[in-house]
Amino acid sequence: MSTWDVDPGRTVPEVVEAAYGIRPLVVERLVRESPNVVWRFTAADGRYTLKRLGRPCEERWLAFQDAAVTRAAAHGVPAEPLLHTLDGLPNASADGALWQVRRYVDGRHCTDGSAADLRAAAETIAAVHAVPVDGLPEPGANPIQDMEFWLGADEGDLDALGVLVSQTAGPSVWDEVADAYRGAWHRARAELDLAAYQSLPTTLTHGELAGSNMVFDDNGVLISLLDWDGVDIRPRVYDLARALLFLARTGRGSFRVHHDLGVDLLLRAAGGHPLHHAELRAVAPILELYFVPTPRYVRQLAACSPATLLWYLGWAADGARTVRANVRGVVAALATHTGRPEPRERAVPLRERS
């Protein structure tokens, strides 16, 4: 559950007034550990959300994000487009950082284990994947690179990760997590490589599907899909795998999923385009590679929150060890629901990553 504390600082009013011409009356800060810092503020015409981006972002990707979310909203996805600055830009640059403002949407987050919430989530995921991408700007390098990074990596990159973790968290920490990361990487790469991943059906994807990024009203209607920091054009199964783990889970912090809810979620989220067998085979490898930390994310956490880094490394190792077994039953059940052959034509290739 989100917790907001009154923020007495002067940075937020200065940024918002100068860049957007909006005068905040009350400012609150979201209490959480993240590379991003989020505030909500009340103005004369309502509430807004302000985010200070904590990850390096290319201008090309920021332009894509703005265009993609605007188009998604225009095609019925419950999303709040970015407000533009007085200069007509989707981001403000101030105090050595990039800032974004959206309208604030009040409500509750997705409830773990709620069949009704998951049905609504599945409909929204299908709507995101149905958004046409023709004419959108080239995405460039997405600021969130997890499993996609590891599809192009080798043993030397794992060794480099070990050096980095040892330097930032301590050699004993790396000794505790190394086998989990290496095992997940070897299992996943034995089943999925970059070329096979790029050949899967490709759509607009949200990139960070989770219960905390979905807002419901009192009637159980999903009224806002938040946090488009991972939006990209990529294989849709990336979203579906993340949704299975983080929406159909048995509880917050758990890597176990509800079998029936997970099956129903992915069947509905696939919409009128049932999953290929190749997509189903990619679910476990995608999730295993998601749990192998990227060097860039380790550096970001080490810089902004060393305590969070220690927690994250252990959490990711637990996920790397267990996620395959936890989703195996759902994947096997879904395989009986589709007789669809492998895709014959190569999908839109994934953009090159930096």
From TrEMBL:
<dbReference type="Pfam" id="PF01636">
    <property type="entry name" value="APH"/>
</dbReference>
<feature type="domain" description="Aminoglycoside phosphotransferase">
    <location>
        <begin position="36"/>
        <end position="256"/>
    </location>
</feature>
<protein>
    <recommendedName>
        <fullName>Aminoglycoside phosphotransferase domain-containing protein</fullName>
    </recommendedName>
</protein>
<dbReference type="InterPro" id="IPR002575">
    <property type="entry name" value="Aminoglycoside_PTrfase"/>
</dbReference>
<dbReference type="InterPro" id="IPR011009">
    <property type="entry name" value="Kinase-like_dom_sf"/>
</dbReference>
